[in-house]
Write a structure and sequence with these properties.
This protein has helices spanning 12-28, 38-57, 63-83, 96-109; strands spanning 112-113, 117-120, 123-126. The protein is mainly α. It has one domain. Strand 1 and strand 2 (117-120) form a beta hairpin. Helix 2 (38-57) packs antiparallel against helix 3 and helix 3 (63-83) runs parallel beside helix 4 (96-109). The longest helix has 21 residues, at 63-83. It is globular, with a radius of gyration of 15 Å. It starts with 11 loop residues before the first helix and ends in a 10-residue tail after the last strand.
């Protein structure tokens, strides 16, 4: 699922994203990929999306703050895609805008609304917190 693309070298952004994901995986372990954590990962994505939008609108945000907000969002996006078995990984982020759009469209095709809610049966869930689920 997360194979390296043989003809594309990783960009600096891809490398930062890879390190960030590796730290997450080491710190959090199994709950990041279990189906029980899907709702938590969706909430994390929505929170990161809000941070990214705020950083983009803020005239006071410096470049490093904006990059940090982009990394936070892309990290959450990759983790949510992994739960849905969508081929993703930091090595694909040599062109972040294009890859981000591809992943968002893939999630949308599965019924996941990355703008505010995830469809599950007849219920809509929205972000309310940022803590991992109990027992994960």
């Amino acid at each position: 699922m997360n194979e390296r693309l043989p003809t594309m070298p990783m960009s600096m952004y891809s490398e930062l994203l890879a390190v960030s994901l590796a730290i997450d995986e080491e710190a959090a372990g199994e709950h990041l990929t279990s189906s029980a954590s899907e709702e938590w990962l969706m909430e994390e994505l929505l929170l990161a999306r809000r941070h990214r939008q705020q950083a983009g609108r803020s005239g006071r945000a410096d470049t490093s703050s904006r990059v940090a907000a982009e990394l936070e969002y892309d990290r959450a996006l990759v983790r949510l895609c992994r739960v849905h078995a969508i081929d993703s990984g930091p090595e694909r982020f040599t062109r972040p805008l294009r890859e981000r759009r591809r992943l968002e469209e893939a999630l949308e095709a599965l019924g996941v609304d990355v703008t505010g809610a995830v469809l599950r049966g007849d219920r809509r869930h929205t972000a309310v917190g940022h803590e991992p689920p109990e027992g994960s």
